[in-house]
Amino acid sequence: MPNQFQFQFHSHTVETSTHTMRTYIQFLFSLLLFSLLCFFVHTKSIIEPCTSSSSCPSLLSYLLPYDSKLSQIASRFHVNISDILAANSVQFPIAAAADHILPSNSAVKIPISCPCVDGIRRSMSAIYTVEASDTVESISDGYGGLASAEQIASVNGINATHRLMNGETVVIPLPCTCLNNVWNGETTVYMSYVVREGERLGSIAAASATTVSDLEAINGLGQALVGPGDVIAVPIAACSSANLNWYNETLIVPNGSYALTASNCIKCSCGPIDLRLQCSPSGLDVACYNLECKDSKLVIGDEYVTHSKYGCNVTLCLYRGHRGGKILRRYAKSISLI
Ligand SMILES: *[C@@H]1O[C@H](CO)[C@@H](O)[C@H](O)[C@H]1NC(C)=O
Ligand SMILES: *[C@@H]1O[C@H](CO)[C@@H](O)[C@H](O)[C@H]1NC(C)=O
Ligand SMILES: *[C@@H]1O[C@H](CO)[C@@H](O)[C@H](O)[C@H]1NC(C)=O
Ligand SMILES: *[C@@H]1O[C@H](CO)[C@@H](O)[C@H](O)[C@H]1NC(C)=O
Ligand SMILES: *[C@@H]1O[C@H](CO)[C@@H](O)[C@H](O)[C@H]1NC(C)=O
């Protein structure tokens, strides 16, 4: 059904009201007063010290500040469109997806690699080109508050003497957490989440299948108090290839999403019923070979069951990593007795 594209990004209702000139001027005035009173708003965010040079997969929960094309979101975060679609479990021809406009206030999951930079976990891969009317605050808003104005200024050495210049590029420090991709002994991917006005840990926990005590423990919060603009790490149960005997590849995929691997030939999904990684051909428009298991008619991901009075025979064709452009697979048989 190629014409029934349905984005499943979580969308919040937006209140559009017509502002009168008077409220607009009041707004400008309070904005001015606000910026004079406090240049930067201090917000809390989780800081994970690190020493290793390894990176881990992580997510950002990005609340769109304005209507944006998917291609604009992808370039804002320096991420591939196909990976954004995968993180949000949207199936979509990529060419058509690029121009798709998502309305402001949609919550989009952005998958980013989380490296160790100067002893703390954060991503420095998003680069922003400054426009004439930009301030560090407006740039921070453009990134949904994931990087505060203060952090952007600090990382880029922006101060009273070094002001933002039109056309200059700045690095956007994005918060991320690895914590070894484990929580309570289970494979976990952490998502950086900006607390909104009126939100409490309870509502955030309920919306993301976790608990207040887990959020407190992960984020080192003494009391269950968070305020708007704070960035917290939310744990998301994930599937792992760790026990699947893959050749030279490890994949960690958050519940409710999929990931592309083997040069986009293979798509591995996680959940939602069990946390078992299910890999099959991606169906994307890329040249892929070796998708069939030898001596069988089964393609990777296929399962063939025959029944008899003694039980059933299950034959499977399983993905097991890739090497030098070659996809590896395993033909497996199992017999279960009744
Ligand atoms: C985006 O996709 C290209 C081609 O598939 C790949 O080379 C590149 O590493 C990807 N970039 C990211 C950030 O994943
Ligand atoms: C502003 O930052 C620059 C480096 O970007 C530094 O050389 C300068 O001393 C700073 N000025 C002030 C007033 O902090
Ligand atoms: C794959 O793993 C083997 C050892 O298990 C290693 O020697 C080889 O360099 C790895 N290849 C790649 C492409 O990572
Ligand atoms: C995975 O996500 C589904 C909904 O998308 C949810 O019902 C289920 O509880 C989640 N599983 C785990 C282990 O978190
Ligand atoms: C199941 O497999 C065994 C051995 O591979 C075979 O002998 C048997 O006939 C098969 N049974 C069915 C129902 O296919």
Nutshell version of this structure?
With 338 residues, the protein is an alpha+beta fold. It contains eight helices and 18 strands. The chain has helices spanning 21-37, 70-77, 81-87, 94-97, 136-142, 149-156, 201-207, 212-219, and strands spanning 10-11, 56-63, 68-69, 101-102, 106-114, 116-117, 120-129, 169-175, 182-183, 186-194, 231-240, 252-254, 257-261, 266-270, 277-281, 303-308, 311-323, 326-337.
Report the uncertain regions: 1-41
Structural class: alpha+beta
Number of strands: 18
Mean pLDDT: 86
> Rounded to an integer, what's the Rg over CA atoms?
23 Å
Q: Could you state the order of secondary-structure elements as H and E?
A: EHEEHHHEEEEHHEEEHHEEEEEEEE
Bound heterogens, unique: 2-acetamido-2-deoxy-beta-D-glucopyranose
Number of folding domains? 2
Distance between the termini: 40 Å
* C-alpha geometry: globular
The major beta sheet can be summarized as: 7 strands, mixed
Beta fraction: 25-35%
- Tally of individual helices: 8
Helix content: 10-25%
Regarding quaternary structure, what we see is single chain
InterPro entries: LysM, LysM_dom_sf
Pfam families: LysM
Organism: Senna tora
Keywords: Membrane, Transmembrane, Transmembrane helix
